[in-house]
Write a structure and sequence with these properties.
The protein is an alpha+beta fold and about 270 residues long. It contains nine helices and eight strands. It has a six-stranded antiparallel sheet with strand order 5-4-3-8-7-6, sandwiched between helices. A two-stranded antiparallel ribbon has the order 1-2. Helix 2 packs across helix 4. The radius of gyration is 24 Å and the shape is elongated. The N and C termini lie far apart (about 70 Å). The relative contact order is 0.10. The model has no long low-confidence stretch (mean pLDDT about 90).
Length: about 270
């Protein structure tokens, strides 16, 4: 029985064989065991393949950031991109698992939608979204990306990030040709958020919406996300803005505590 199952598994793998994908995985799995790196010729010999078979795949992996060549070298090495992807996925899963029950309570309590965002390179990435229970509501698509400086979520995470990370992001804006006055405005806005502990600000994207955004911290006290309620006033939304602000602050702290940040949270901001 076991032998038959093994044979069936092997047959299935052969039936769904994708040579290019298999070559790519062979290269990556082989290269991670080569700390000194390899030339294309050495790699081809090590894999028992021709240079022609691996050359284009190597170029694609280099272009996508999985492999790199140090300056003045023809030896390829595996970058940290795979590790970063795995780390990011596990951390995001932990984050959303911690946030989900809190946000599922927050949305009906405030009668507003809420979402959770992280910084992904220079963008705010939406990783969790809970809709308001009301039939008319404002929500953000899961997986959507926005320039961090155009969102409360992005600027809140930016405001509590380490100084070197903030300077890197501001340098990217400068390299993109952003006006110095705009960059200074973002810097001052972040300083105000860090002092207040949260942001309440009219949405730059949607008229009539007020964003309430608070930071979320991990067990090391590092900011990992922002919890945001895009407050949309309407007759059926009976909870006033000031009350929602307090609930969002408490929800952000609850998620942080769930992530292990109980002893590393800043004091509650004055209201």
């Amino acid at each position: 029985m076991i032998a038959n199952e093994a044979e069936d598994g092997a047959a299935t793998r052969r039936a769904y064989s994708v040579p290019a994908a298999e070559k790519t995985l062979d290269i990556l799995e082989f290269m991670v065991r080569q700390p000194a790196g390899m030339t294309i010729t050495e790699l081809a010999v090590g894999l028992g393949r021709s240079v022609h078979e691996v050359y284009r795949i190597i170029l694609v992996l280099e272009a996508r950031g999985y492999l790199y060549r140090p300056a003045q070298s023809d030896r390829y090495r595996v970058s940290l991109k795979i590790f970063e992807m795995a780390h990011e996925m596990s951390s995001v899963r932990q984050l959303t698992d911690a946030a989900l029950p809190v946000m599922q309570t927050l949305a009906p309590a405030t009668m507003q939608s809420c979402h959770l965002a992280v910084l992904s390179d220079r963008d705010a990435l939406i990783v969790l979204q809970i809709d308001s229970p009301l039939p008319m509501r404002y929500s953000v698509m899961l997986g959507a990306k926005f320039q961090f400086e155009e969102t409360s979520s992005g600027v809140v995470v930016f405001a509590f990030s380490p100084p070197e990370q903030r300077e890197t992001l501001l340098s990217k804006l400068e390299a993109e040709g952003r006006d110095r006055a705009d960059i200074e405005s973002i810097r001052l806005r972040a300083e105000a958020i860090a002092a207040d502990g949260y942001e309440v600000r009219t949405s730059l994207a949607v008229g009539g919406v007020t964003n309430i955004s608070v930071p979320v911290f991990d067990y090391l006290g590092h900011v990992v996300a922002a919890l945001t309620v895009p407050y949309m006033p309407q007759r059926a939304a009976l909870v006033p803005l000031d009350a929602v602000v307090g609930q969002v602050i408490q929800a952000g702290r609850a998620i942080s505590i769930e992530l292990g940040a109980a002893n590393r949270l800043p004091p509650l901001p004055p209201q």
